[in-house]
Amino acid sequence: MLRFGNIIIILCILANQHIYCQVLSEQKTTNQFKVVVAEVEIAGRIVPLANSYSIGYEDNAIELTLKSMPTLSNISYKYRIIEDSFEGDKVYPWTNLKEDVIRIDTLNPAIYHFEIIGISKHDNIQSKPIFVEFKIEYPWWRSWWFWGACFVTLFGLFYGRERFLKFWADEEQRHYKQVTELELRTLQLQMNPHFVFNALNAVQSFILTRDSIAANNYLSKFANLIRLFLDSSRSKYITLSDEIKLLSLYVEMERLRFDNKFEFHLNIAPDVNQFVDIPTMILQPFIENAINHGLRYKTTQGNLYIHFYNQGKYLVCKIEDDGVGRERARQIQAKSRKGYQSQGLKITEERLRTFNMIADSDIRFSINDRIEKNDEEEADVGTLIEIKFPKFG
Protein backbone atom coordinates (compact mmCIF):
# COMPACT_ATOMS: atom_id res chain seq x y z
CA MET A 1 0.00 0.00 0.00
CA LEU A 2 2.78 2.36 0.81
CA ARG A 3 4.53 1.80 -2.44
CA PHE A 4 1.30 2.37 -4.33
CA GLY A 5 0.76 5.65 -2.46
CA ASN A 6 4.26 6.84 -3.29
CA ILE A 7 3.57 6.20 -6.97
CA ILE A 8 0.38 8.23 -6.75
CA ILE A 9 2.26 11.14 -5.16
CA ILE A 10 4.98 11.08 -7.81
CA LEU A 11 2.41 11.13 -10.61
CA CYS A 12 0.66 14.13 -9.06
CA ILE A 13 3.95 16.02 -8.77
CA LEU A 14 4.74 15.35 -12.44
CA ALA A 15 1.28 16.44 -13.54
CA ASN A 16 1.51 19.68 -11.59
CA GLN A 17 4.93 20.40 -13.10
CA HIS A 18 3.55 19.91 -16.65
CA ILE A 19 0.67 22.24 -15.96
CA TYR A 20 3.05 24.82 -14.52
CA CYS A 21 5.29 24.68 -17.59
CA GLN A 22 2.29 25.09 -19.87
CA VAL A 23 1.14 28.15 -17.92
CA LEU A 24 4.60 29.68 -18.13
CA SER A 25 4.66 29.12 -21.90
CA GLU A 26 1.27 30.75 -22.34
CA GLN A 27 2.34 33.66 -20.14
CA LYS A 28 5.47 34.14 -22.26
CA THR A 29 3.43 34.23 -25.47
CA THR A 30 0.86 36.55 -23.96
CA ASN A 31 3.50 38.99 -22.84
CA GLN A 32 5.05 39.31 -26.39
CA PHE A 33 5.37 43.06 -27.31
CA LYS A 34 4.34 44.90 -30.48
CA VAL A 35 5.72 47.92 -32.37
CA VAL A 36 3.68 51.03 -33.20
CA VAL A 37 4.42 54.36 -34.93
CA ALA A 38 4.30 57.06 -32.32
CA GLU A 39 4.80 60.06 -34.57
CA VAL A 40 5.10 60.85 -38.32
CA GLU A 41 6.87 63.94 -39.55
CA ILE A 42 6.81 64.87 -43.26
CA ALA A 43 8.94 67.77 -44.55
CA GLY A 44 9.33 69.04 -40.99
CA ARG A 45 5.60 68.95 -40.22
CA ILE A 46 3.97 66.51 -37.83
CA VAL A 47 0.98 64.87 -39.46
CA PRO A 48 -1.83 62.73 -38.01
CA LEU A 49 -1.16 59.03 -37.72
CA ALA A 50 -2.47 56.85 -40.58
CA ASN A 51 -1.69 53.64 -42.43
CA SER A 52 -0.85 55.42 -45.72
CA TYR A 53 0.27 58.87 -46.80
CA SER A 54 0.28 60.72 -50.13
CA ILE A 55 2.88 63.47 -50.35
CA GLY A 56 4.34 65.74 -53.00
CA TYR A 57 7.67 65.01 -54.66
CA GLU A 58 9.27 68.01 -52.91
CA ASP A 59 8.09 66.79 -49.44
CA ASN A 60 9.94 63.47 -49.51
CA ALA A 61 11.77 64.06 -46.19
CA ILE A 62 10.14 61.45 -43.92
CA GLU A 63 10.72 60.79 -40.20
CA LEU A 64 9.00 57.98 -38.26
CA THR A 65 9.26 57.73 -34.45
CA LEU A 66 8.72 54.18 -33.15
CA LYS A 67 7.86 52.72 -29.76
CA SER A 68 6.97 49.36 -28.29
CA MET A 69 3.77 48.31 -26.59
CA PRO A 70 4.21 47.84 -23.70
CA THR A 71 7.11 50.24 -23.39
CA LEU A 72 10.35 48.32 -23.03
CA SER A 73 13.90 49.60 -22.76
CA ASN A 74 15.71 46.72 -24.37
CA ILE A 75 14.10 46.98 -27.84
CA SER A 76 15.92 47.59 -31.15
CA TYR A 77 14.28 48.12 -34.54
CA LYS A 78 14.88 47.27 -38.18
CA TYR A 79 12.99 48.09 -41.37
CA ARG A 80 13.01 47.49 -45.07
CA ILE A 81 11.33 49.21 -48.00
CA ILE A 82 9.20 47.48 -50.65
CA GLU A 83 8.76 49.61 -53.75
CA ASP A 84 5.86 49.06 -56.14
CA SER A 85 7.10 48.76 -59.73
CA PHE A 86 5.59 47.97 -63.13
CA GLU A 87 8.03 45.07 -63.35
CA GLY A 88 7.07 43.79 -59.88
CA ASP A 89 7.85 44.67 -56.28
CA LYS A 90 11.41 45.81 -55.59
CA VAL A 91 12.51 44.77 -52.10
CA TYR A 92 15.37 46.67 -50.45
CA PRO A 93 17.59 44.99 -47.80
CA TRP A 94 16.88 45.29 -44.07
CA THR A 95 18.30 48.29 -42.24
CA ASN A 96 19.05 48.12 -38.50
CA LEU A 97 18.33 51.27 -36.50
CA LYS A 98 20.53 52.57 -33.74
CA GLU A 99 17.63 54.52 -32.31
CA ASP A 100 13.87 54.48 -32.50
CA VAL A 101 13.59 56.92 -35.43
CA ILE A 102 13.55 56.25 -39.20
CA ARG A 103 14.82 59.19 -41.25
CA ILE A 104 14.93 59.13 -45.06
CA ASP A 105 14.88 61.84 -47.74
CA THR A 106 16.11 60.07 -50.89
CA LEU A 107 12.90 58.53 -52.19
CA ASN A 108 11.88 59.18 -55.79
CA PRO A 109 8.22 59.42 -56.92
CA ALA A 110 6.69 55.96 -56.42
CA ILE A 111 4.70 53.91 -53.89
CA TYR A 112 6.69 52.54 -50.92
CA HIS A 113 5.73 50.13 -48.15
CA PHE A 114 7.79 50.42 -44.97
CA GLU A 115 7.98 47.06 -43.14
CA ILE A 116 9.06 47.61 -39.46
CA ILE A 117 9.98 44.97 -36.86
CA GLY A 118 11.01 45.33 -33.21
CA ILE A 119 13.56 42.95 -31.59
CA SER A 120 13.89 42.24 -27.85
CA LYS A 121 17.59 42.28 -27.00
CA HIS A 122 17.03 40.23 -23.83
CA ASP A 123 15.44 37.10 -25.25
CA ASN A 124 15.77 37.86 -29.03
CA ILE A 125 12.03 37.84 -29.59
CA GLN A 126 10.72 39.64 -32.71
CA SER A 127 7.46 41.52 -32.90
CA LYS A 128 4.96 41.10 -35.66
CA PRO A 129 5.78 43.41 -38.62
CA ILE A 130 3.82 46.56 -39.17
CA PHE A 131 3.45 48.35 -42.53
CA VAL A 132 3.21 52.02 -43.40
CA GLU A 133 2.59 53.16 -47.01
CA PHE A 134 3.98 56.32 -48.58
CA LYS A 135 2.92 57.43 -52.06
CA ILE A 136 5.23 60.13 -53.38
CA GLU A 137 3.52 61.95 -56.24
CA TYR A 138 5.28 62.77 -59.49
CA PRO A 139 5.99 66.47 -60.20
CA TRP A 140 3.29 68.14 -62.25
CA TRP A 141 5.50 68.30 -65.34
CA ARG A 142 5.84 64.50 -65.25
CA SER A 143 2.18 63.74 -64.69
CA TRP A 144 0.06 62.12 -67.38
CA TRP A 145 -2.41 64.99 -67.46
CA PHE A 146 0.41 67.48 -68.06
CA TRP A 147 1.79 65.51 -71.01
CA GLY A 148 -1.74 64.97 -72.25
CA ALA A 149 -2.39 68.71 -72.05
CA CYS A 150 0.92 69.40 -73.82
CA PHE A 151 0.02 66.97 -76.58
CA VAL A 152 -3.44 68.48 -77.01
CA THR A 153 -1.98 72.00 -76.97
CA LEU A 154 0.74 71.19 -79.52
CA PHE A 155 -1.74 69.36 -81.70
CA GLY A 156 -4.09 72.33 -81.47
CA LEU A 157 -1.27 74.74 -82.37
CA PHE A 158 -0.15 72.69 -85.37
CA TYR A 159 -3.73 72.11 -86.47
CA GLY A 160 -4.56 75.77 -86.02
CA ARG A 161 -1.44 76.76 -87.95
CA GLU A 162 -2.34 74.45 -90.83
CA ARG A 163 -5.91 75.72 -90.84
CA PHE A 164 -4.66 79.31 -90.76
CA LEU A 165 -2.22 78.71 -93.62
CA LYS A 166 -4.88 76.87 -95.61
CA PHE A 167 -7.35 79.67 -94.98
CA TRP A 168 -4.95 82.29 -96.30
CA ALA A 169 -3.94 80.06 -99.20
CA ASP A 170 -7.61 79.61 -100.09
CA GLU A 171 -8.19 83.34 -99.70
CA GLU A 172 -5.21 84.10 -101.91
CA GLN A 173 -6.40 81.57 -104.47
CA ARG A 174 -9.92 83.00 -104.33
CA HIS A 175 -8.66 86.55 -104.88
CA TYR A 176 -6.36 85.32 -107.62
CA LYS A 177 -9.28 83.62 -109.36
CA GLN A 178 -11.38 86.76 -108.99
CA VAL A 179 -8.65 88.86 -110.61
CA THR A 180 -8.14 86.28 -113.34
CA GLU A 181 -11.86 86.04 -114.02
CA LEU A 182 -11.98 89.82 -114.31
CA GLU A 183 -9.13 89.62 -116.80
CA LEU A 184 -11.05 86.94 -118.69
CA ARG A 185 -14.18 89.09 -118.66
CA THR A 186 -12.14 92.05 -119.90
CA LEU A 187 -10.75 90.00 -122.76
CA GLN A 188 -14.26 88.78 -123.58
CA LEU A 189 -15.49 92.37 -123.68
CA GLN A 190 -12.60 93.23 -125.99
CA MET A 191 -13.99 90.66 -128.45
CA ASN A 192 -17.28 92.55 -128.66
CA PRO A 193 -15.99 95.73 -130.31
CA HIS A 194 -13.68 93.68 -132.51
CA PHE A 195 -16.59 91.64 -133.85
CA VAL A 196 -18.94 94.62 -134.08
CA PHE A 197 -16.27 96.63 -135.91
CA ASN A 198 -16.05 94.04 -138.68
CA ALA A 199 -19.85 93.73 -138.93
CA LEU A 200 -20.32 97.50 -139.22
CA ASN A 201 -17.64 97.65 -141.91
CA ALA A 202 -19.70 95.18 -143.91
CA VAL A 203 -22.87 97.27 -143.47
CA GLN A 204 -20.92 100.36 -144.52
CA SER A 205 -19.74 98.53 -147.63
CA PHE A 206 -23.33 97.64 -148.61
CA ILE A 207 -24.47 101.21 -148.08
CA LEU A 208 -21.64 102.61 -150.19
CA THR A 209 -22.55 100.24 -153.02
CA ARG A 210 -26.21 101.29 -152.66
CA ASP A 211 -27.27 97.69 -152.08
CA SER A 212 -30.06 98.46 -149.62
CA ILE A 213 -31.60 94.97 -149.77
CA ALA A 214 -28.29 93.31 -148.89
CA ALA A 215 -27.69 95.93 -146.18
CA ASN A 216 -31.12 95.33 -144.66
CA ASN A 217 -30.67 91.54 -144.83
CA TYR A 218 -27.24 91.84 -143.26
CA LEU A 219 -28.50 94.12 -140.49
CA SER A 220 -31.29 91.63 -139.66
CA LYS A 221 -28.82 88.79 -139.38
CA PHE A 222 -26.46 91.05 -137.43
CA ALA A 223 -29.19 91.98 -134.94
CA ASN A 224 -30.07 88.31 -134.46
CA LEU A 225 -26.41 87.44 -134.01
CA ILE A 226 -25.90 90.25 -131.49
CA ARG A 227 -28.87 88.96 -129.48
CA LEU A 228 -27.42 85.45 -129.46
CA PHE A 229 -24.03 86.81 -128.55
CA LEU A 230 -25.37 88.92 -125.67
CA ASP A 231 -27.29 85.93 -124.31
CA SER A 232 -24.18 83.77 -124.38
CA SER A 233 -21.78 86.44 -123.10
CA ARG A 234 -23.50 86.46 -119.69
CA SER A 235 -21.76 83.20 -118.90
CA LYS A 236 -18.28 81.84 -119.38
CA TYR A 237 -19.76 78.72 -121.00
CA ILE A 238 -22.09 77.92 -123.87
CA THR A 239 -23.43 74.59 -125.09
CA LEU A 240 -21.93 73.24 -128.28
CA SER A 241 -25.38 73.30 -129.89
CA ASP A 242 -25.80 77.04 -129.22
CA GLU A 243 -22.25 77.72 -130.34
CA ILE A 244 -22.92 75.97 -133.66
CA LYS A 245 -26.05 78.12 -134.19
CA LEU A 246 -24.05 81.26 -133.46
CA LEU A 247 -21.21 80.22 -135.79
CA SER A 248 -23.58 79.23 -138.59
CA LEU A 249 -25.28 82.63 -138.44
CA TYR A 250 -21.90 84.37 -138.37
CA VAL A 251 -20.68 82.45 -141.43
CA GLU A 252 -23.90 83.32 -143.30
CA MET A 253 -23.23 86.99 -142.59
CA GLU A 254 -19.67 86.68 -143.83
CA ARG A 255 -20.81 84.89 -146.99
CA LEU A 256 -23.30 87.70 -147.61
CA ARG A 257 -20.60 90.26 -146.96
CA PHE A 258 -18.20 88.66 -149.45
CA ASP A 259 -20.94 87.99 -152.03
CA ASN A 260 -20.94 84.19 -151.53
CA LYS A 261 -17.26 83.95 -152.35
CA PHE A 262 -16.95 80.65 -150.45
CA GLU A 263 -19.04 77.63 -149.56
CA PHE A 264 -19.65 76.55 -145.98
CA HIS A 265 -19.48 72.86 -144.99
CA LEU A 266 -20.46 71.80 -141.45
CA ASN A 267 -19.96 68.22 -140.31
CA ILE A 268 -20.81 66.92 -136.80
CA ALA A 269 -19.92 63.33 -135.90
CA PRO A 270 -22.91 61.26 -134.67
CA ASP A 271 -21.25 60.46 -131.33
CA VAL A 272 -20.62 64.11 -130.44
CA ASN A 273 -22.60 65.36 -127.44
CA GLN A 274 -23.99 68.73 -128.56
CA PHE A 275 -25.03 69.63 -125.00
CA VAL A 276 -21.48 69.73 -123.69
CA ASP A 277 -20.26 73.13 -122.44
CA ILE A 278 -17.37 74.98 -124.02
CA PRO A 279 -16.01 78.51 -123.37
CA THR A 280 -18.05 81.28 -124.99
CA MET A 281 -16.79 82.94 -128.21
CA ILE A 282 -13.70 80.75 -128.54
CA LEU A 283 -14.29 79.40 -132.06
CA GLN A 284 -15.55 82.57 -133.75
CA PRO A 285 -12.13 84.35 -133.96
CA PHE A 286 -10.58 81.27 -135.63
CA ILE A 287 -13.34 81.18 -138.25
CA GLU A 288 -13.04 84.93 -138.74
CA ASN A 289 -9.31 84.52 -139.28
CA ALA A 290 -9.88 81.77 -141.88
CA ILE A 291 -12.34 83.94 -143.81
CA ASN A 292 -10.58 87.31 -143.61
CA HIS A 293 -7.00 86.12 -144.04
CA GLY A 294 -7.42 83.07 -146.27
CA LEU A 295 -10.58 82.90 -148.33
CA ARG A 296 -10.90 86.66 -148.77
CA TYR A 297 -7.86 86.89 -151.03
CA LYS A 298 -8.69 83.78 -153.07
CA THR A 299 -9.39 84.52 -156.76
CA THR A 300 -11.67 81.50 -157.20
CA GLN A 301 -14.56 80.01 -155.25
CA GLY A 302 -13.34 78.89 -151.83
CA ASN A 303 -14.48 76.42 -149.19
CA LEU A 304 -14.73 76.58 -145.42
CA TYR A 305 -14.99 73.28 -143.53
CA ILE A 306 -15.88 72.90 -139.86
CA HIS A 307 -15.72 69.40 -138.35
CA PHE A 308 -16.68 68.35 -134.82
CA TYR A 309 -15.60 64.88 -133.66
CA ASN A 310 -14.34 62.98 -130.61
CA GLN A 311 -10.69 62.06 -130.28
CA GLY A 312 -9.91 60.13 -127.09
CA LYS A 313 -10.49 62.41 -124.13
CA TYR A 314 -10.91 65.49 -126.33
CA LEU A 315 -13.71 67.05 -128.34
CA VAL A 316 -12.01 68.37 -131.48
CA CYS A 317 -13.13 71.24 -133.67
CA LYS A 318 -11.24 71.27 -136.99
CA ILE A 319 -11.49 74.42 -139.14
CA GLU A 320 -10.14 74.16 -142.68
CA ASP A 321 -10.03 76.56 -145.59
CA ASP A 322 -8.50 76.32 -149.05
CA GLY A 323 -7.47 79.97 -149.10
CA VAL A 324 -4.17 81.56 -150.00
CA GLY A 325 -2.43 80.51 -146.76
CA ARG A 326 -0.92 82.42 -143.90
CA GLU A 327 2.30 83.55 -145.59
CA ARG A 328 0.57 84.90 -148.71
CA ALA A 329 -2.07 86.64 -146.55
CA ARG A 330 0.67 88.41 -144.53
CA GLN A 331 2.29 89.63 -147.73
CA ILE A 332 -0.98 90.98 -149.09
CA GLN A 333 -1.90 92.68 -145.80
CA ALA A 334 1.53 94.28 -145.51
CA LYS A 335 1.00 96.04 -148.86
CA SER A 336 -2.65 96.96 -148.59
CA ARG A 337 -3.18 97.72 -144.90
CA LYS A 338 0.16 99.23 -143.92
CA GLY A 339 1.06 96.86 -141.13
CA TYR A 340 -2.41 96.39 -139.64
CA GLN A 341 -2.60 93.27 -137.50
CA SER A 342 -5.81 91.57 -136.41
CA GLN A 343 -6.24 91.35 -132.64
CA GLY A 344 -8.80 88.53 -132.70
CA LEU A 345 -6.38 85.59 -132.45
CA LYS A 346 -4.15 87.40 -129.96
CA ILE A 347 -7.09 88.09 -127.66
CA THR A 348 -8.31 84.51 -128.07
CA GLU A 349 -4.88 83.14 -127.11
CA GLU A 350 -4.93 85.27 -123.95
CA ARG A 351 -8.48 84.12 -123.15
CA LEU A 352 -7.55 80.46 -123.55
CA ARG A 353 -4.47 80.84 -121.37
CA THR A 354 -6.47 82.64 -118.68
CA PHE A 355 -9.37 80.19 -118.89
CA ASN A 356 -7.04 77.19 -118.56
CA MET A 357 -5.50 78.80 -115.49
CA ILE A 358 -8.67 79.53 -113.52
CA ALA A 359 -10.62 76.44 -114.63
CA ASP A 360 -7.65 74.06 -114.37
CA SER A 361 -8.44 73.04 -117.92
CA ASP A 362 -6.29 71.97 -120.86
CA ILE A 363 -7.78 73.51 -124.01
CA ARG A 364 -5.27 73.30 -126.87
CA PHE A 365 -5.16 74.72 -130.36
CA SER A 366 -2.78 74.59 -133.31
CA ILE A 367 -2.58 76.46 -136.63
CA ASN A 368 -0.79 74.86 -139.59
CA ASP A 369 -0.71 74.95 -143.35
CA ARG A 370 -3.36 72.68 -144.85
CA ILE A 371 -1.04 71.36 -147.58
CA GLU A 372 2.66 71.63 -148.28
CA LYS A 373 3.22 74.03 -151.12
CA ASN A 374 5.53 73.11 -153.96
CA ASP A 375 7.74 75.98 -155.09
CA GLU A 376 6.89 75.21 -158.71
CA GLU A 377 3.13 75.29 -158.07
CA GLU A 378 0.90 78.32 -157.63
CA ALA A 379 -1.86 76.39 -155.82
CA ASP A 380 -3.39 77.90 -152.68
CA VAL A 381 -2.02 76.39 -149.48
CA GLY A 382 -4.98 76.85 -147.15
CA THR A 383 -4.97 76.73 -143.33
CA LEU A 384 -5.84 74.01 -140.84
CA ILE A 385 -6.85 74.95 -137.30
CA GLU A 386 -7.53 72.38 -134.55
CA ILE A 387 -9.04 73.28 -131.17
CA LYS A 388 -9.18 70.48 -128.60
CA PHE A 389 -11.55 70.70 -125.62
CA PRO A 390 -11.04 68.17 -122.81
CA LYS A 391 -14.15 66.16 -122.05
CA PHE A 392 -15.32 66.03 -118.42
CA GLY A 393 -17.29 63.24 -116.76
Automatic annotation (TrEMBL):
Tell me where in this chain the Signal transduction histidine kinase internal region domain is found: 183-262
SUPFAM superfamilies listed in its UniProt record: ATPase domain of HSP90 chaperone/DNA topoisomerase II/histidine kinase
Is the keyword Kinase assigned to this protein?
yes
GO MF, one example: kinase activity
What Gene3D superfamilies does its record include? Histidine kinase-like ATPase, C-terminal domain, Immunoglobulins
Listed A to Z, the keywords are: Kinase, Transferase
Check the record and name the InterPro entries matching this protein: Bact_2-comp_sensor_kinase, HATPase_C_sf, Ig-like_fold, Sig_transdc_His_kin_internal
Sorted alphabetically, which Pfam families does this protein's record hold?
A: His_kinase
Protein name per its UniProtKB record: Signal transduction histidine kinase
